[in-house]
From TrEMBL:
The lineage of its organism: Bacteria, Bacillati, Bacillota, Bacilli, Bacillales. SUPFAM superfamilies: P-loop containing nucleoside triphosphate hydrolases. Coiled coil: none annotated. GO terms for cellular component: ATP-binding cassette (ABC) transporter complex. Keywords: ATP-binding, Cell membrane, Membrane, Nucleotide-binding, Translocase, Transport. It holds the Pfam family ABC_tran. Belongs to the ABC transporter superfamily. This is ABC transporter ATP-binding protein. Residues 6-241 form the ABC transporter domain. InterPro entries: AAA+_ATPase, ABC_transporter-like_ATP-bd, ABC_transporter-like_CS, ABC_transpr_CbiO/EcfA_su, Co_trans_ATP-bd, ECF_ABC_transporter_ATP-bd, P-loop_NTPase.
Length: 279
């Protein structure tokens, strides 16, 4: 039986200027899954994430964490933010301390835990993102990709159960994007629920267990990567693109009766295997 770690029920959000950013959002996020949220700019992805950890309070509807409704009081929000961490798109908006160690230790220090435990957590978090050897370096000397990894360590030090990434591979070159995805996989392998928003349909298709498509503050469709990206009407209406791997496979299916739909590839390696079988 599925265990839902995060749910929204009829959740809506309106900004003070009257902008209706979210409309009647109903979601159930399974524990330990890899979730991608896709949609054009302005579709409501970032606003949804800020509702997830209580930075924003729903105008209507409710948020549930582990089956319990989130109350927007100090104690409830503190507990929520320990367990649901957000890594923002631009690390410059998240980093503010002088050195890498000071930066990553800040959240753990606020938990009022022992100094030795803080040090252990910081070292572990920095190792997890490949930044341990930079722990004494000044933050402003880091590259953009390194700052991204430190911003992840900022969250990992809190030992959350859910980590949320807002456009995590934007502005990264292919090498550093792959490093970032490797970090996601390692976190998920250790039991963490990973949620990310992305414009990269190739990443969403190859990486995700489940995809949520948003448009104009609403959820248009939810499903597996194959279900989502096989829906040509959805792709057109939500201004998405079909992942290249899936598009090539579908063309092969049209021209070869020996290819079965059950062999749908999710990445280049799986597509190459299909091509190899075809000879």
């Amino acid at each position: 039986m599925s265990e839902y770690i995060l749910e929204t029920r009829n959740l809506s959000f309106q900004y003070p200027d009257g902008t209706k950013a979210l409309r009647n959002i109903n979601l159930k996020i399974e524990k330990g899954k890899k979730i991608s949220v896709v949609g054009v700019n302005g579709s409501g992805k970032s606003t949804l994430f800020l509702n997830f950890n209580g930075v924003l309070k729903p105008t209507e509807g409710i948020l549930l964490y582990k089956g319990k409704e989130v109350k927007h009081n100090h104690r409830s929000l503190l507990e929520l933010r320990k367990n649901i961490g957000i890594v923002f798109q631009d690390p410059e908006n998240q980093l503010f301390s002088a050195s890498v160690f000071q930066e990553v230790s800040f959240g753990a220090m606020n938990l009022r835990i022992a100094e030795d435990e803080v040090r252990n957590r910081v070292n572990e978090a920095l190792r997890n993102v490949g930044m341990y050897e930079y722990k004494d370096k000044a933050v402003h000397f880091l590259s953009y990709g390194q700052k991204k990894r430190v911003s992840i360590a900022d969250i990992l030090v809190m030992k959350p159960e859910i980590i949320v990434f807002d456009e995590p591979t934007s502005s990264l070159d292919p090498k550093h994007s792959k490093q970032m995805v490797k970090i996601f996989d390692e976190l998920n392998d250790n039991g963490m629920t990973v949620i990310l928003s992305t414009h990269d349909v190739e990443l969403a298709y190859s990486y995700s267990d489940y995809i949520i498509v948003m448009k104009d503050g609403e959820i248009v469709k939810q499903g597996t990567p194959v279900e989502i990206f096989s829906d040509d009407n959805l792709i057109r209406d939500c201004y998405l693109e079909k992942p290249m791997v899936l598009e090539i496979f579908q063309q092969l299916c049209k021209n070869n009766k020996f290819i079965s739909e059950k062999d749908i590839p999710r990445n280049k390696e799986e597509l190459f295997h299909v091509l190899k079988v075809l000879g």
